[in-house]
Amino acid sequence: MKKIEVLGIGFPNKGAELMLQSVIERLIEVPDNPAALVLQTYHPYKQRIRFKAYQKFWVEKKFFELGRITELMPKTLLSKFGIIKDSDIGVLLDCSGFAYGDQWGYQKANRRLGRNIKRWKKEGKKVILMPQAFGPFKNQQLKDEIGLIIDHADLIFARDPESLKHLQEIRPDAKNVTISADMTIGLTPKPELALPETAGRPCLIPNQKMLEKGGLNEGGYVDFFASIAKELLSRGLNPYLLLHEGPKDLKLCEDIKAKVGANIDVICPEDPVVIKATIGSSLFVVTSRFHGFVSSLSQGVPCVATSWSHKYEMLANEFQIEDAIASISDPSWPAKIADRCADQDYMVEVRAKLKATSQQKKKEVQRMWDKVKSCANL
């Protein structure tokens, strides 16, 4: 059984978990050709076991990866603990989403891929960077590291034209760099998985990274979402807050709820597929989470996003929806969002447009998976 290691997945980020679930559906739990899923040891056991993942003992100590010591241990012993040796991994899939750019720095690229990719290639492993955002790359050390990764990866999928441009600026003639839509577009949850209490209601998804990476003031950000909720309530709509990640996002949800001063539900599903299905049953979505944006658009749900990275604008362009990126500094947006939700003609028109585009994107994602399987001999 081929062993596939997935890199770049962080728990409890539900977007990352959706990407992992996509890999499981397409490459791991395949009836005629199943594979073993492997995650590194730093993932919590309780999270890892939900996805039936083996572990690769890979602990760093002063820039030395102690996991190499498992190469000296017998497989019979390691198998008792569900540990897979690095030398037994046949395919490495980097599902980072967004980890390579000046915002993240050189060390992340080096630790995740750069320091090992030459050796992995020499050992015959396939290294594939799944659809994700890249760049910009202004730091020379980071540029050199990305150049090394491009030179030794088997396939690299940029998730949008701007990300592709950033990679091509480093290696203009690279044949292994291409473009594909986000892989989670191809993951279609069963409608019955949606939480029934949220069906037909506006959904609000905050994101702590708007403060960490977007440079926003927390009070202003909370006020923005609270204003949207109040506008929706004033029109007889019943919004809810959806938790798409961990404790920091939950605090934002609770702060927004307190600011609204009305009884507004905070929904916290554990299963990422349930979250996507729930988004799909919503009336409208306002999201600062990228995969909340993907899950909305790919299921034909009208949506507005706030942005801290080019990946949001690029996704809006992909789905050909104008005026979908909200400016938090513009006080007209809360009322504008509520007006859209109440405009039935607008909702019908946008839903039809999004569903048509989604079908095209799903075909693109299928072509991406075909390339991955061919490259990795799966």
Automatic annotation (TrEMBL):
Residues 13-310 form the Polysaccharide pyruvyl transferase domain. InterPro entries: Polysacch_pyruvyl_Trfase. GO terms for molecular function: transferase activity. Keywords: Transferase. It comes from the Bacteria. It holds the Pfam family PS_pyruv_trans. This is Polysaccharide pyruvyl transferase family protein.
